[in-house]
Amino acid sequence: MSDAFLLNLVLWLPVAGLLPVAVVRAQAATVRLVTTGIMLIQFAAAVLLYLHFDGTNGALQAATMVPWIADWGVSYHIGLDGLNILLVLLTAFLGPLVVIGAWTAIEEQVALFHVMLLLLQFAMVGALVAQDLFLFYVFWEAMLIPMFFMIGIWGGARRSYATIKFVLYTAFGSILMLGAIIYLVYAWRQQGGVASFAFADLLTVALPANVQVWLFAAFALSFAIKVPMVPLHTWLPDAHVEAPTPGSVILAGVLLKMGTYGFIKLGFPLFPDATRIFAPWLMSLSVISIVYGACLALVQQDIKKIIAYSSVSHLGYVMLGLLSLDIAGVQGAIVQMVSHGIVAAGLFLLVGVIYERCHTRELSAYGGLARQTPVYALFFVIFMLASVGLPTTSGFTGEFMVLLGAFNAAWPQHLDGNNQPLILAIVAVSGVVLGALYMLRFALTFLFGEQKAPHQPLADLTSRELGVLGVLTAAVFFLGLFPDGALRKTELAARRYQELVMTSRVPSNAP
Q1: Which residues have CB under 8 Å from 297's CB, separation 6+?
Q2: Residues of 31-68 as b/e, b for ≥16 C-beta within 10 angstroms?
């Protein structure tokens, strides 16, 4: 069985799973079992791809390339590299856990919900493995549709408002990116004589700096909305609050990473000169996101909003690492993407567990859960500590490497008289302190505050919930204690990314 076949299996298996789900749609329990089985097979194939992936080989691996729209230079071109291998594994890893963890969260139109879940899994993997810009854009837009229905049908009381806001934000950015894609492909055709949407071709297009600035702005806006970066973050808390538990887990675990992946795969390498022009501003926005997101999390009373704003802060670290252009920072950003996906998934599943029992998200309604549900409290503390970056957890590995990369990049500039990068790196450290403050406040009120009588008695974790959270916990400590394997897979790609962004592609005859 070739790696190319395995990658196509990982991509298309959720689509193939639509038929058996449709056949058993009237039986909710069977629908859940079938979906879980499909997701587990997908994860097993993704694990094999990860084990087979050679981090010392800079070429695209497990690739498939088939002409699609030949006259336009569009191909069905997919493959793995050091930038997407961990994210593909993360997406496949979270799939079955989402279904099992939210087994009882969805009770109406169960079959339709799992159809949306499978389609979303297909679109997310597709966006990650696409190596053709047309194909990437198709998957990028396709992700919007199932999430739209997941929030709009199974969401909370204000689901219509949250859905419309989510769609308007993401669609606006995508339209601008589409215009930039068309211009970029036309520029390649003018230089190469034929049309092509292939990443490898478009990465060689030489454009004047002023043109790069406009095209980069279009790509960056679309990706920054998806991250989201301040001030484009306001759709996220509403989407998280109104989404059902599986929607929140996928949104935080994978969908937000599409923005940061878009930057590292496309936005920065395609327009290196514009990237270096905008880097000081984007680094400033990244640090603002770190601090502002943490401050907002510190004052929230809705437990979902606390985790939502913490995501804004944590993904600010990812952007800081990517913009540092230091190997440690870039690799730390990739690890932080994976770590945040695991930790945020665990936190949102824990919120879903308690919401099913108590039917409220208000922090003030809780207290003393450590005495009533000690096993639940233990897992909550583990994921809380991973979120604040406790050593031995995945959160520490990612944040430490990002900050190390930021200081590595800032110090030479400081010696040359440019103090801005060093100041930003120092301010970014405060996000660690603020993260500890809002998560400790959360935990103290939630677990150890005054016990609230209306919620007694509360059942502790079931064996199903215990199994899902146990797997996520194992992943948190495995990535925290043994990050070397993941770093070896990404090092060569990180160096290639650094080289692409540091090399100018302004045409030699530009004025």
Answers
A1: 305, 306, 307, 309, 310, 313, 438
A2: bbebbbebbebbbebbebbbeebebeeeebbbbbeeee
Total domain count, the chain = 1
CA distance 507 to 204: 11
Tell me if 507 is assigned to some domain. no
What does R_g of the chain's alpha carbons equal in angstroms? 22
Contact 128/140 with Cβ under 8 angstroms?
Answer: no
In a domain, 330, yes or no: yes
Q: Provide block-wise average pLDDT over 10 residues at a time, the chain (511 residues).
A: 90 92 84 92 95 90 91 91 94 93 82 92 95 94 90 84 86 88 89 84 88 92 90 85 87 90 93 91 93 91 89 92 92 94 93 86 84 91 92 92 91 77 89 89 84 67 92 95 92 92 75 52
DSSP string, 354-398: HHHHH---BGGG---HHHH-HHHHHHHHHHHHHHTT-TTSHHHHH
Query: Where do we find the tokens 């490898």?
Result: 200
Residue 108 is part of which domain span? 3-502
Q: Which residues contact 410 (CB under 8 A, 6 or more apart)?
A: 324, 421, 422, 424, 425
